[in-house]
Amino acid sequence: MLTSPLLVPLLLAVAGLASWGAARFVRRRRGRTVTALVALLAFLAVPGGGLQLWALAALDSSAVARAVVWRDADVDDWRRFPALPVPAGARTLQLRPGSLPTGVLDEVTPPGGATEDLDALLERTGTQAFLVLRGDELVVERYLHGGNREGTQTSFSVAKSVLSTLVGIAVDRGEIGSLDDPVTAYVPELLDRDEDFTRVTLRSLVTMSSGLRYEEHGLPWSDDSVTYYSPDLRATALSVEIDEAPGLRWHYDNYNPLLVGLVLERATGTPVAQYASEVLWQPLGAEADASWSADSEEHGFAKMESGFNARAVDYARFGYLFAHEGRVGDRQVVPAAWVAEATARDTSTDPAEHYQYWWWVDTEREGRFSARGNKGQYVYVDPTTDVVVVRMGRDHGIDDWPAVLRDVADRVQAAGS
């Protein structure tokens, strides 16, 4: 196959010859005015058409090409990227069918909003799966807009909470020394870029306060786009630059999970998807295999920032694990101390009370927290009342899902008191 630098000028030349030929044909048929119009349109189409043709040919080798063709992220992107298997185990955490008293969740009332019928809300917001777990009872399980019990749901940044959990397990197993280790203890080649990387700790990475440079908006060249679409995410992680000293401010940055993924891979000597299966997905009792989208077939590095895919009911099991201090039956899957630390409302070691180790902290309800992803993917957890709410959808549909999920948990709590 031609390399991208050679392909672009060739395609532009072909498009140029096509426009010249079209102009000559019309000149013979219609006259100068039409000729000029066709030539102008053809000239304007050359760059866009050539770029599109190049992008289609370079999908396996260019983040920009992927952004040009695929554009904004989509819930079906898990079908586009290569899939790394995350097998489930033989033991399944059994969830029983349950129910709530009549009328408890007929409607919801988010703060500052009007009361709305829950089914109508789910319908109009493109929700594909909505589950409420109380203890081991599924008291609500609804699927809409093509969703179903066996369907795969991509989680976008819920993957960060999964990755955070793997880090906690690796620390407990002694594979990672401490969150206070500098990232350069595991990725020393960063020192060749900037000696200040010695100041960037794993803790600053998992709290989004690393001080790394990151531009969130603007396809196709922004950091947001590159960290999502890059076909070589290891190289992308190593291209990061320092913007300011760590610990000064909270700034959402997808280079952070990429670097931590490198650390985890090297510290454990195991690909992250395989490690996730062995230490998390099988022990928590998932009912079905999951997958982790990879950057490309060639490089096979899991999309740490956004690529974990599973059934909605298994996301509920993941929430159950955190609602029960990391324990499932007789298995302590995640250290209880890590669960508490990762979801705490604490600014003693980082600058944001609403965010801890890649978990969002509900500052309106003490002790509650959630994993969140683009397009409105949520795993909302209230350990005090043993309630987990999962929402998966094609898009947000509304601005404030956290308020809706909080209201749902409040209503379930009131029904059980």
UniProtKB/TrEMBL annotation:
Q: Where are the transmembrane segments?
A: 6-26, 33-57
Sorted alphabetically, the keyword list is: Membrane, Transmembrane, Transmembrane helix
Q: Which PANTHER family match?
A: BETA-LACTAMASE-RELATED (PTHR43283), BETA-LACTAMASE-RELATED DOMAIN-CONTAINING PROTEIN (PTHR43283:SF7)
- For the Beta-lactamase-related domain, which residue ranges apply? 129-392
Q: Does the keyword Transmembrane apply?
A: yes
In terms of superkingdom, the source organism counts as Bacteria
Which positions are tagged coiled coil?
A: none
Under what name is this protein listed? Beta-lactamase
